[in-house]
Q: What sequence folds into this?
C-alpha cells in the first residue's frame, strides 16, 4: 500500500515536473514572440494581449521609459493575437540629399497577425538602436468599421515635456503630473513632442511616412485626464478598403542633440518614388521679400522690379548661390493656366538673365489670391522657367500637400511650403523635391520677437520633423531692427549677432537655405559671408551634434568630403563651448578659419561686431569657442594644401 502511494507520488511529481517544463517552455515562446529588441539589445519592446486589449512597454538599458500603454487600430473592438513572426533586416541606402550621404537601415521587426472580432489586421513593430516604430495594415476593411490609430504613451509623471507652438516660442518644460492640476489644458499638441525623462533620457514622439497613408491626418496629442497619460487618436477617413497607417515613432537617445541625427524617421519612410531625381539640387537661395525698402550706399532702393532682381542674380552668380527666390506680388491676377504679371517686372528678362548667369529662379504662389487648380499651376510654372515654387498660405491640409508634392515632382519643380505646413516627416526620402518647409517661427515673420532662446528651442524641437525654412542669415541686423525694411519689423525684435546668424544657417538643416538679406549687406561683411558662401547645402556626408542643451546652446558639425563646417550658438548669458576636433583624420594638418563674436559683441546692444582669424589644427585639438550673450561661433576646417 505504501509502495502504491509512493509510486503514485513519484508519478504525480513527474507529471508536475513535465507540466512545469511545458509551461515554462510555452511562457518562453510567448515572451519571445511578443518581445522585440533593437540590434544592439539596448531597447526592448514588449507587447501583451490581455482581455482583448493590446499593450506595449519600452525599456532602454534596463530603464522603463514607456510603461504599459494601449495601442489599437480599432479601439472599440476586442483584439486577439493569432500569429507572430520576427525578422532582422540590415541594409544601407543613399539619400538624394540629406544630413548623411549613406544611411544604415538596421532593425528587428515583430509582425503580429491580429483579429479584431473578425477583422484581420497586421501590426508591424520595429526596434531600432534609436527607437521604435509602429504601423497597422488592414487589407480588407469593412465599410461599416471606423478605424483610428489609438496609442497611449505611459510616461513618468515627473517627466518634462516640450512641444512646438506654431510661430510662437515652443512650450515647456511642463511636468506631466502638472497637467492633472491645470484648470485648462491645450486640447491638442503639434508634433514633435520632446520629453526629458527623470532618468536622464530623451524621447521624441512623432510619425513618419504620412505620404503613404491616405485617409490619415497629421498626428496630434492630448492629455487624457481619466487615463492620466498622453494619448493620440488619429481617425481614418478614407473610403477604400485598404488601410495603411503612418509609422508612429518613439525616438530614444541619451543626449538631446542625437535626436536631430536619429535616422529612424528616414529609414521607415517609403523609398524614392522618382525614377530620375538628378534634377533635384539642394542649395542656397537669395530672397527678395525682406530686402524691399533697403537702400544701398549708391542710392538704389530694392523693390519688386526688374533692376532689383538683376542685382540679386548678379550677386548669386558671383558667389555660387544656386537660387534666387521671388516672393509675393510679382503678379497681379490669376486665371486658369495664366498669371498676370506686375507691370513693374519683366519676368521673361529676369528668367533669361538668370539662365545666362547659371542661377535658378524660384517663384512664390499665394493660394489666397485665386487658386485655379494645381494641375494647371505646376506645368505653368515650369513653362515660365521656374525651378521651384514657394507655396504660401496652403494650410495644414494633408491630401492637398501630398498632391502638391507629387504634382510639383511631375513638373520637375522643387517645393517649399510656407505658413503652418504639414510636417510630412520622412517625405524627403520618397519625394526629395519637397525641399523645405516653414514649420517654425521664421525670422522676422509675424513681426514677433525672435530671441536666442526661441532659436535654440526650435532647433531642438521643430527641426526634429524635418527640413526647416527659418530664413536665418541676417547681416544688417541694426538696419532691420531700425524698421528700415518694408517687409520687416518696425521696432527691434530680431535678437541675435551677425556671427550667430552665420552659424544658424548651418545648424538648421534644410535642402534650401534661404538667406534673407540684401546682397550689399553680405558684400560689406564678405569675410564673414565666406562661411555661408563656402558651406555646401544638403549634400552632407556626415553630421554630428557636439553640444546641445535646451534653452542654453547647440553646436553642429557637418562634413562634406574632407571639409568640416561647425556652428555654435549660445543663449543670453553667453559662454564658452569646448569643441574637441576628434572627428578629424589622424596624421593630417587642417587649415581653420574662425568666425567669432568679439569681447564687445552683444545680441541687443552691439550685434554686428565680429572678427575672422585663421590657424591650423589637427585631430584632437580642443577649440574653446567663446560666444557673446546671444551670440555664435563658426569654423571652416579643410585639409592643408601641400
A:
Amino acid at each position: 500500500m505504501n509502495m502504491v502511494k509512493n509510486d503514485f507520488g513519484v508519478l504525480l511529481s513527474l507529471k508536475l515536473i513535465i507540466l512545469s517544463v511545458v509551461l515554462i517552455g510555452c511562457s518562453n515562446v510567448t515572451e519571445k514572440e511578443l518581445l522585440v529588441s533593437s540590434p544592439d539589445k539596448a531597447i526592448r519592446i514588449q507587447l501583451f494581449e490581455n482581455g482583448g486589449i493590446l499593450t506595449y512597454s519600452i525599456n532602454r538599458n534596463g530603464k522603463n521609459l514607456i510603461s504599459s500603454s494601449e495601442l489599437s487600430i480599432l479601439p472599440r473592438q476586442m483584439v486577439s493575437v493569432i500569429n507572430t513572426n520576427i525578422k532582422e533586416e540590415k541594409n544601407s541606402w543613399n539619400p538624394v540629399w540629406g544630413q548623411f550621404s549613406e544611411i544604415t537601415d538596421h532593425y528587428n521587426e515583430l509582425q503580429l497577425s491580429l483579429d479584431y472580432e473578425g477583422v484581420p489586421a497586421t501590426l508591424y513593430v520595429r526596434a531600432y538602436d534609436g527607437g521604435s516604430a509602429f504601423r497597422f495594415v488592414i487589407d480588407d476593411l469593412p465599410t461599416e468599421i471606423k478605424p483610428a490609430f489609438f496609442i497611449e504613451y505611459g510616461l513618468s509623471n515627473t517627466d518634462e515635456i516640450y512641444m512646438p507652438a506654431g510661430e510662437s516660442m515652443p512650450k515647456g518644460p511642463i511636468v506631466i503630473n502638472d497637467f492633472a492640476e491645470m484648470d485648462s489644458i491645450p486640447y491638442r499638441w503639434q508634433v514633435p513632442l520632446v520629453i526629458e525623462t527623470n532618468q536622464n533620457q530623451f524621447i521624441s514622439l512623432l510619425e513618419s511616412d504620412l505620404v503613404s497613408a491616405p485617409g490619415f491626418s497629421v498626428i496630434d496629442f492630448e492629455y487624457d485626464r481619466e487615463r492620466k497619460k498622453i494619448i493620440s487618436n488619429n481617425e481614418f477617413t478614407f473610403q477604400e478598403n485598404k488601410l495603411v497607417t503612418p509609422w508612429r515613432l518613439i525616438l530614444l537617445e541619451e543626449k538631446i542633440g542625437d535626436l536631430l541625427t536619429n535616422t529612424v524617421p528616414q529609414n521607415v519612410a517609403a523609398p524614392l518614388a522618382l525614377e530620375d531625381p538628378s534634377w533635384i539640387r539642394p542649395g542656397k537661395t537669395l530672397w527678395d521679400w525682406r530686402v524691399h525698402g533697403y537702400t544701398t550706399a549708391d542710392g538704389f532702393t530694392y523693390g519688386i522690379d526688374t533692376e532689383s532682381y538683376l542685382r540679386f542674380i548678379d550677386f548669386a552668380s558671383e558667389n555660387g548661390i544656386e537660387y534666387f527666390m521671388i516672393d509675393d506680388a510679382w503678379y497681379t491676377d490669376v486665371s486658369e493656366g495664366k498669371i498676370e504679371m506686375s507691370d513693374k517686372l519683366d519676368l521673361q528678362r529676369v528668367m533669361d538673365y538668370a539662365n545666362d548667369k547659371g542661377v535658378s529662379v524660384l517663384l512664390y504662389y499665394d493660394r489666397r489670391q485665386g487658386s485655379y487648380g494645381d494641375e494647371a499651376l505646376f506645368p505653368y510654372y515650369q513653362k515660365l522657367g521656374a525651378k521651384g515654387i514657394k507655396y504660401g498660405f496652403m494650410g495644414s491640409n494633408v491630401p492637398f500637400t501630398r498632391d502638391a508634392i507629387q504634382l510639383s515632382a511631375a513638373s520637375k519643380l522643387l517645393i517649399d511650403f510656407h505658413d503652418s505646413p504639414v510636417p510630412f516627416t520622412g517625405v524627403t526620402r520618397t519625394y526629395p523635391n519637397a525641399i523645405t518647409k516653414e514649420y517654425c517661427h521664421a525670422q522676422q515673420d509675424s513681426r514677433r520677437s525672435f530671441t536666442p532662446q526661441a532659436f535654440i528651442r526650435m532647433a531642438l524641437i521643430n527641426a526634429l520633423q524635418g527640413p526647416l525654412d527659418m530664413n536665418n542669415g541676417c547681416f544688417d541686423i541694426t538696419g532691420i531692427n531700425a524698421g528700415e525694411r518694408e517687409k520687416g519689423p518696425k521696432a527691434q525684435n530680431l535678437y541675435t549677432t551677425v556671427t550667430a546668424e552665420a552659424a544658424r544657417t548651418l545648424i538648421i538643416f534644410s535642402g534650401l537655405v534661404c538667406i534673407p538679406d540684401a546682397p550689399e549687406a553680405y558684400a560689406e561683411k564678405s569675410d564673414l559671408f565666406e562661411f555661408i558662401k563656402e558651406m555646401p547645402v544638403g549634400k552632407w556626408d556626415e553630421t554630428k551634434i557636439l553640444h546641445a542643451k535646451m534653452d542654453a546652446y547647440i553646436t553642429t558639425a557637418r562634413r562634406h568630403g574632407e571639409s568640416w563646417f561647425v556652428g555654435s550658438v549660445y543663449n543670453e548669458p553667453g559662454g564658452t563651448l569646448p569643441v574637441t576636433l576628434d572627428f578629424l583624420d589622424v596624421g593630417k594638418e587642417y587649415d581653420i578659419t574662425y568666425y567669432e563674436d568679439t569681447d564687445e559683441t552683444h545680441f541687443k546692444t552691439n550685434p554686428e561686431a565680429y572678427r575672422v582669424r585663421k590657424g591650423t589644427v589637427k585631430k584632437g585639438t580642443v577649440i574653446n569657442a567663446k560666444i557673446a550673450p546671444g551670440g555664435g561661433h563658426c569654423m571652416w576646417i579643410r585639409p592643408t594644401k601641400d
User: Anything to note?
Assistant: DSSP finds 13 helices and 34 strands in the chain.
